[in-house]
C-alpha cells in the first residue's frame, strides 16, 4: 500500500513541475505586423503598390515581396531571380535578406520574390523605406526603393 502512495505522490509532483515549467517557459518570438504595404519604384521596370510578408523563428526570419504593379517583362523561370532585400533598421545596422526563391512567372505576371532568408535580433524595427530590393534577372540588375514608410508600420522582431 505504501508503494502506491509514493508512486501517486511522485506522479502528482511530476505533473505539478510540468505545469510550472510551461507557465515559466519563454514565449515564442513573433514578428508584428506580419504583412505591410509600401510603394516601390523600380525605375524603368515600373513601380507601384507592393506587399511585404514577414515570418520569424528565433533569430531566423524571412521576407517575401510581391507586387501586381511590377510585372515580369519576359517569362521568368522558377528560382531564377537572385534577390537581395536590404531593410533599414531603426535600432541598429540594416538587415539583409537574400535568396533565389521565386515562382515561375509568364510575361506580365506580378513579381514575387521570396521567401528571402535573413537574421534578426530581438527589438529590430525593419522598414523597406530607406532600404532597397536588388533583383538580378538574366544578368540585368533591377533596383527598387520605397517612396515612403511601409504601412501599418515597420516589422518589429
From TrEMBL:
Keywords: Signal
Signal peptide range: 1-25
Top-level taxonomic group: Bacteria
Name by which UniProt lists this protein: Secreted protein
Organism taxonomic ancestry: Bacteria, Bacillati, Actinomycetota, Actinomycetes, Kitasatosporales
